[in-house]
């Protein structure tokens, strides 16, 4: 069950953005996120806006989804032009979900072709497709690479069968190394996603998963702590006492273990939950996810698909969550947005602190208000931020600071 959408201001049916969204737009990066809302099976921990094939009628089937997504891409350009917002080549494109690779590779390639024709792509633009290891073949990965996809992000989650079972993950862990090899043969960069802290996962289980992922020699690793969201099957099982609740101390131990193993294998953290491989910072920087960094730097992005969120110049909006009304709006040439908000200066400051404090490049001390700058000395004393970096004018979290990142942000915001 996907979470309820936020409340907000009504979004105009013509999609037009306020004049504030256009200010300085030529100097900001523009990215595209394409949400593919289909999954073969909904995992027990997942609260994303996803649907199995039997949940939706023929009007929004996997067979016709690509045409609707492409229509919104074209419509997005018209809205930006009508709103006076600079139309720029895309800095990055990210196909997420759901399981994007449940669509034929040719459909994903077709959406990307429309994005290229409509906006253009920056030189060296990053194009990522999320994938279940069971839903790719050597042929499908070649089609994606030939279309301009540059990297694939595999949802590995764990190498341990009983942990995958708790998460309701149905993929065969033996398929992960094969999928990675096929992606390499197609010339694609590879990221693997892991989840730690599942009920019943021991520290040894987690170590096995991290070392297995490292053994695949990916370019990038994401490791996220399990969050049990209301409305999911996992939350219901916890309420009934069938599985143990989340242990935050256990999750902290697993984060530290992952960071130690990844650092020892030549990976460098660049965001609290993300590491890129490289023998030096320049090489590791080249393998960072440009799309994710666009989010953390609060650049502009347009989200395509049901429930997708967008942000342009301090205006944020979100599409209708259910694919049926979303599809009807897109086909009528109307905005599929359910609501929007225009961020005030205080909210934009809060979000900048929350986002940039998470990344290795750090948060400029000059971006803080007086209360935030006053808090810096205490954060150094508590070994939560790097003292040398702070003296150079940038707040960079220590390992302890990464574990207590929310507390750091609260102190910076007073």
UniProtKB/TrEMBL annotation:
Function as written in the Swiss-Prot or TrEMBL entry = Probably acts as a heme chaperone, transferring heme to an unknown acceptor. Binds one molecule of heme per monomer, possibly covalently. Binds 1 [4Fe-4S] cluster. The cluster is coordinated with 3 cysteines and an exchangeable S-adenosyl-L-methionine.
Listed GO MF terms: 4 iron, 4 sulfur cluster binding; coproporphyrinogen oxidase activity; metal ion binding
What PROSITE patterns does UniProt report for this protein, alphabetically?
Answer: RADICAL_SAM
Which lineage ranks, top first, belong to the organism behind this chain?
Answer: Bacteria, Bacillati, Actinomycetota, Actinomycetes, Micrococcales
Q: Where is this region: Disordered?
A: 1-20
UniProt keyword annotations, A-Z: 4Fe-4S, Chaperone, Cytoplasm, Heme, Iron, Iron-sulfur, Metal-binding, S-adenosyl-L-methionine
Enumerate the SUPFAM superfamilies for this protein: Radical SAM enzymes
Task: Return the protein name.
Answer: Heme chaperone HemW
